[in-house]
From TrEMBL:
CDD domains: PMM_PGM. It comes from Kitasatospora herbaricolor. Keywords: Isomerase, Magnesium, Metal-binding, Phosphoprotein. It comes from the Bacteria. This is Phosphomannomutase/phosphoglucomutase.
Length: 461
């Protein structure tokens, strides 16, 4: 039996094609998904990577072979797949490797209503089942079952997806805005033209051609080098705002009119303010907002100032979605630019966050930098990675120094978080690499640099 732990991660399937997986494994994953979820029907979509159409079709055939009807929605963004899962009330499978290089592909799985499937919610069972069907020589034999094969059908969901989002944010009365969008040759080039159609927006498209070889730059806006073209185009065209989507277009990064990146924490606070106002107008006395523990202190401050309840979670979509379900939170945000909405089946959608920012900007006369200034109150380090031989040892060394400092608090919700009166840092171990990830924040840049450098000196000693 083959070990697939390197292929099946905590939240999804992700690996190099065909070295780590191919159509035979995709077919097995389709059958196993149906077996574990006991689904009688599922929805399947894929991104623009060269390997995606054949992998998604193999998955669909495997699912149909185990008795499930399969609705194939073809090319789509990940949040478009979540829309289809929610609207059709079906489990779903999205074939994408998000921001990874072209040779990678993967599967993001969900239950009906876009509920997440991760290692604790079915993915481990799916992996173990596929492993049991896979020999050491990588041949895969899916056992035959005595059921009537399911039917495969095609359905377009793009217009319905766009209409659903536009029903949640009113952009009809905003002032005209010039918007530069860098799709990175990813699925934003597929979704943006339909979502933006008819809105008072002067769209300047960049890299809208669907090309999973990513000829212009990686579709990973988290890396600053991939924002350079967008920043230059915003300044060159005198645009009001720039938007950058990752490969599967479920994350969105924002650039202001000066060409400067807007912190995802500031976007979280801005959207939270809008969603709090909407919830209170609908009669909710104290709406709940979820934020992970590496978002800026600004986020819970703004939420409390607006009379709502902030709830702090671990990093990761499964934790966010679980806490949103428990608390009935109206919105959740992560510093990685994942934004979650109760009205979108608690799933993450960068497009809906972008529409909120456009509505806020277009609903007043000022610039984006002025609008977001009140949501950017602290100096942040950004995430800094350090390669270490022994993660636990280095975290313990940092804890030994900071754990007993007067006036500090320490918690271990997710890694090590230490907070002083006007600063904090979080040190977390990577689950897949020998890395420690540091995020630090303080009242000003000098204090932030002092804290950052002191912690890094211990980590890298």
């Amino acid at each position: 039996m083959r070990d697939l732990k390197q292929l099946v991660k905590a939240y999804d399937v992700r690996g190099v094609v065909p070295d780590q997986w191919d159509e035979s494994l995709a077919r097995a994953f389709g059958a196993a998904f149906v077996r574990v979820t006991e689904a009688t029907a599922i929805v399947v979509g894929h991104d623009m990577r060269p390997s995606s159409p054949s992998l998604s079709r193999a998955f669909a055939e495997g699912a149909a072979g185990y008795g499930a009807d399969v609705v194939e929605i073809g090319l789509c963004s990940t949040d478009q797949l979540y829309y289809a899962s929610g609207k059709l009330d079906l489990p779903g499978a999205m074939f994408t490797a998000s921001h990874n290089p072209a040779e990678y592909n993967g599967i993001k799985l969900c239950r009906a209503g876009a509920a997440p499937v991760g290692q604790d919610t079915g993915l481990t069972e799916i992996r173990e089942l596929v492993e049991s069907w896979t020999a050491e020589d990588d041949t895969v034999t899916v056992p035959a079952v005595d059921v009537k094969p399911g039917a495969l059908s095609a359905q377009d969901s793009l217009r319905g997806y766009a209409d659903h989002l536009l029903g949640l944010v009113d952009l009809t009365a905003v002032r005209p805005l010039k918007v530069v969008v860098d799709a990175g040759n990813g699925m934003g080039g597929h979704t943006v033209p339909t979502v933006f159609d008819g809105l008072p927006l002067d769209l300047v498209p960049m890299y809208f051609e669907l090309d999973g070889t990513f000829p212009n730059h990686e579709a990973n806006p988290l890396d600053p080098k991939n924002l350079v073209d967008l920043q230059a185009k915003v300044v060159e065209t005198g645009a009001d705002i720039g938007l950058a989507f990752d490969g599967d277009a479920d994350r969105c990064f924002v650039i202001d009119e000066r060409g400067e990146p807007v912190s995802p924490s500031a976007i979280t606070a801005l959207v939270a303010a809008r969603e709090i106002a909407r919830a209170r107008a609908a009669g909710e006395e104290k709406p709940t907002i979820i934020h992970n523990l590496i978002t800026s202190w600004t986020v819970p401050e703004v939420v409390r100032e607006l009379g709502a309840e902030p709830v702090r979670t671990r990093v990761g979509h499964s934790f966010i979605k679980q806490e949103m379900a428990v608390t009935d939170a109206v919105f959740g945000g992560e510093h990685s630019a994942h934004y979650y909405f109760r009205d979108f089946w608690r799933a993450d959608t960068g497009m809906l966050a972008a529409l909120h920012v456009l509505a806020a900007l277009g609903g007043q006369d000022g610039t984006l930098s002025a609008l977001t200034a009140e949501y950017d109150r602290y100096a942040a380090s950004g995430e800094i990675n350090s390669t270490v031989a022994d993660q636990a040892d280095r975290v313990a060394a940092v804890r030994a120094v900071y754990g007993e400092l007067p006036g500090t608090t320490v918690d271990e919700l997710d890694g090590l978080t230490v907070a002083g009166p006007d600063w904090w840092f979080n040190l977390r171990a990577s689950n897949t690499e020998p890395l420690l990830r540091l995020n630090a924040e303080a009242k000003d840049a000098a204090k932030m640099a002092e804290v950052r450098d002191a912690v890094l000196a211990i980590v890298r000693a």
